[in-house]
Amino acid sequence: MDGELAYSTWPALSPTPVVLVPLGSTEQHGPHLPFSTDTIIASAVAERVATDLTIRGHSVVVAPALQYGASGEHQNFPGTVSIGTEALTIVVIELVRSLSTWAGRIVLVNGHGGNLAALTASVSLLRGEGHTVAWAPCTVARGDAHAGITETSILLHLDAKLVDLASVVPGATTPMSALFGRLAVEGVRAVSPTGILGDPTGATATTGAALIAEMCDGVQRRILGESIDPRGCLRDPDRCTVPAPVATEDRA
Ligand SMILES: [Zn+2]
Transmembrane ranges (predicted)? Predict the structure, then answer.
């Protein structure tokens, strides 16, 4: 790949590369995972996908991650920093307008489900302006929602010292579909005092390696498939085109 934009120089860039932009959040992830969990995962996925696409002959560069997202549902926990959907929408619009002056194709690699409303609004507007942009979620087929076994396992794989294993406890395991109404109105703390939606007990680095490989495969398939749904999301050619449930498709 052309590498990471942050550490490259302008003469080193290929003409009109594919640009991957990791989108994350700064929000609580229970008592055992760091605030940057979503950003760390989205960045790792983008970097691995960029490497694989480069092997296939594409010119790819990974832009610096956007560390702030729409995390209002986590605001009741100290440390959470959210810019909200309206501001995130504008940020994505201006990022893509600027990137479009030199990039070929732009893919927003999203690690946080709370960013979806902003992504849908911004990408549909941008595509209407003629920009070659879409987004892809970091998702697995049977993942849990937030700070559970999915994210905990992946962080154990990526950097085990980021996980406070002594603080791992089961969270709210009621399906997200049943929690979502109250969660949307009252926030995560009303349905999970620890901030965990899922159960991280039993998480392992080995599981995490398999999960992030699945995420990367999915994002790569979506990019190579080039089919975009009405939300501006790249479809996974290997999966149903009907949007999956929040708990699996769009992690919190
Ligand atoms: Zn997360």
Answer: none
